[in-house]
Amino acid sequence: MKTNSQANVLVTNADLSAIRQLLLDLFVRLAYKEGDFVLSSGQRSNYYINGKQVTLTAEGALAIGRLLLSMLPEDTQSVAGLTLGADPIVTAVSVVSAYENRPIPALIVRKEAKGHGTRAYLEGPTLPSGAKVVVLEDVVTTGKSAMLAVERLRAAGYAVEQVIALVDRKQGGAEFYCSQGLKFQALFSIEEIRQRYAQIELER
């Protein structure tokens, strides 16, 4: 087991394939649980992934920032996501982008309009009309959560053509995005996480 300091050095200096493996292990060790759960979609599941257990760690955020930044189209003008799950993800990507001399601002999409002031759905810098925004998500099940972010961003005049997730549960989200004309990518499939979990359990 790597110490936190060893993990941080790896995420800072390693190539993307090594960082991806480290992030996979973080998801297996910290975020993935087996049992009886009810998901936000209302579906029951024999496993649950709490992405915030990884996205809110220092090494997890740094790994996510580096990996997702490498997946963004060159013309990306902003990253955005629906609060709360996507908040640390878009922030991580934005911070890493500054270090990579490719500064990309982050937007946070509210589920409900702000109850005071501007009463806006979006938090973050105002972008030019038609700015190209990529929506980020932690775990995709049906795809409806990130789609709400897409709709809010488009209503604000931004161009959204792609969704990138950390984990795809393979329960219809990818197909839903395709039906909406959106490109979809995920860092990990649920099969990969479950296989790694089983491998680690056998090694104990």
From TrEMBL:
Cofactor field: Mg(2+)
Q: Where does 5-phospho-alpha-D-ribose 1-diphosphate bind?
A: 110-111, 114, 116, 137-145
What domain of life?
Bacteria
> Which Gene Ontology terms cover its molecular function?
magnesium ion binding; orotate phosphoribosyltransferase activity
User: Which segments does the entry list as coiled coil?
Assistant: none
Family stated for the protein in its record: Belongs to the purine/pyrimidine phosphoribosyltransferase family. PyrE subfamily.
Annotated protein name in UniProt? Orotate phosphoribosyltransferase
Organism field: Hydrococcus rivularis NIES-593
